[in-house]
Design brief:
The chain is an alpha/beta fold. It has helices at about 20-35, 50-65, 75-85, 120-135, 185-190, 195-210, 220-230, 245-250; strands at about 40-45, 70-75, 90-95, 110, 140-145, 150-160, 160-170, 255. The chain has a single domain (about 20-260), classed as Rossmann fold, CATH 3.40.50. InterPro entries: SAM-dependent_MTases_sf.
Length: about 260
């Protein structure tokens, strides 16, 4: 076997750490999974020291698409060996990296907390490699989250390149929206400086959040939704399902086109 592409991560993980991205994938990409002629394949890349987040992804996606198959891919052979006792019909674990050693092109690849340790140029290169491995109509969900999953940001990429950027937070887990900046994808985190689009977006989001402070007595969900509506006047915030609108905002999500911050 050729050496897997990539480096071993810290492996930090835990129950429900990736529930926000799981929920988004299940809601936004269920039609993609159900459209597959054969059993749709999903890859969880770099699942870490425990199998648990891969198992949770499998269980959640089986609700919206009972035919889905999930493969957990890890570069550390010890982690793969520890996960294999938890395999079941439709859920397997293999050793590998960004080359995705799976039997067919996946429709969805989830890669969380795997690119932060790389240089920005290397992160772009790994994005390119992943895009070359997915199904032509597939999607890559790549991002980072806090240790307990209360703050997360992820990019969605197709074979053609980045499509969207999604912010997700637990209400009460932040003071202002720009607190999520620490979870930006590697390709953006160093660009959060004056003069860059992502910095200006976060600055205006904070401003809209402050403007909507009078809605705080009605709850954080109301304030978040009103902030999204206000921000959408100047930024291309997704305002209709499945990516936006009240149903997503009530969950503490906000999605914009990648082009807005590229």
């Amino acid at each position: 076997m050729r050496r897997p592409v990539g480096e071993i991560t810290r492996g930090t993980t835990g129950h429900n750490r990736l529930r926000r991205s799981d929920r988004w994938i299940a809601a936004v990409h269920a039609p993609l999974l159900r459209s597959a002629r054969d059993a749709p394949l999903v890859v969880d890349l770099g699942y870490g020291a425990s199998h648990i987040t891969t198992l949770e992804l499998f269980v959640r996606l089986r609700v919206v698409c009972p035919r889905v198959e999930v493969v957990g891919v890890e570069i550390d052979p010890a982690r793969v060996a520890a996960a294999r006792p938890y395999e079941r019909d439709g859920l397997t674990f293999v050793r590998g990296g960004f080359e995705l050693p799976v039997p067919r092109r996946p429709l969805i690849v989830r890669a969380f907390n795997v690119l932060r340790q790389y240089a920005e140029a290397d992160a772009w290169a790994h994005w390119d490699l992943l895009r070359s491995r997915i199904d032509p109509g597939g999607v890559i969900v790549e991002g980072t989250c806090s240790e307990i999953g209360h703050r997360a940001v992820w990019a969605a990429l197709g074979a053609e390149g980045p499509r969207t950027l999604t912010f997700a937070a637990r209400f009460g887990g932040f003071d202002r929206p720009s607190d999520l900046a620490e979870r930006l994808p590697k390709t953006l985190i160093h660009r959060n400086v004056p003069g860059e689009p992502v910095h200006e977006f976060l600055r205006q989001w904070d401003r809209a959040w402050a403007t909507c402070a009078p809605f705080a007595p009605y709850g954080s969900r109301q304030r978040w939704a009103r902030t999204a509506e206000l921000l959408a006047r100047d930024w291309p915030v997704a305002v209709t399902p499945p990516l936006g609108g009240p149903s997503r905002w009530r969950l503490g999500e906000l999605t914009i086109p990648w082009s807005a911050v590229a």
